[in-house]
Amino acid sequence: MVIDGDEYRIRLNGHVYHCALDVTMELVGGKWKTIVLWYLRKDKKRFSELRKLIPGITEKMLSLQLRQLEKDGFVSRKVYPEVPPRVEYALTAHGRTLLPLLEEIAAWGRMMGKKYGSVEKVDRPAKKKAARKNVST
């Protein structure tokens, strides 16, 4: 990469990068990583919650992405000693450094949707409340 007329490269994890964008895309690129990070931005989530929030991702792929994000220090994994075990995923402080980027990318995506397509509200059925039975004796 060239900055102010000087050429630089980045060495990271045994790789040499000639562009800072290449580093970013290596760490958070692909179809699923940014989406997983997006859903963890406000609160911790269990695996099953993430799976429900991300249509189209397989359990295997979600597991692989979470492991890689954990390895890269963006996500933490906490296992609670319960039966059955409960596992929660959350953004680390390092992961939260990505939030301004993710918010800008999401805003750009919404802008593109509005400009060249449409942004539509999805009506989801209301959660059913347990019906109360009137029992008279």
Outline the secondary-structure elements.
Blueprint: E1 2-3, E2 6-7, E3 10-12, E4 15-17, H1 20-28, H2 33-39, E5 45-46, H3 47-53, H4 59-71, E6 75-80, E7 86-91, H5 93-96, H6 99-116
Antiparallel strand pairs: 1-2, 3-4, 5-7, 6-7
> Main beta sheet: strand number and arrangement?
3 strands, antiparallel
Helix content: 40-55%
Beta-strand proportion: 15-25%
Instruction: Give me the CATH architecture of the largest domain, please.
Output: Orthogonal Bundle
Shape: flat
Q: Helix and strand succession?
A: EEEEHHEHHEEHH
CATH superfamily of the largest domain: Winged helix-like DNA-binding domain superfamily/Winged helix DNA-binding domain
Q: Structural class from helices and strands?
A: alpha+beta
CATH topology of the largest domain: Arc Repressor Mutant, subunit A
By DSSP, the count of extended strands is: 7
- End-to-end separation in angstroms reads 82 Å
Return residue spans where pLDDT drops below 50 for at least 5 consecutive residues. none
Radius of gyration: 21 Å
Spatial ordering of strands, largest sheet: 5-7-6
Indicate the CATH class of the largest domain.
Answer: Mainly Alpha
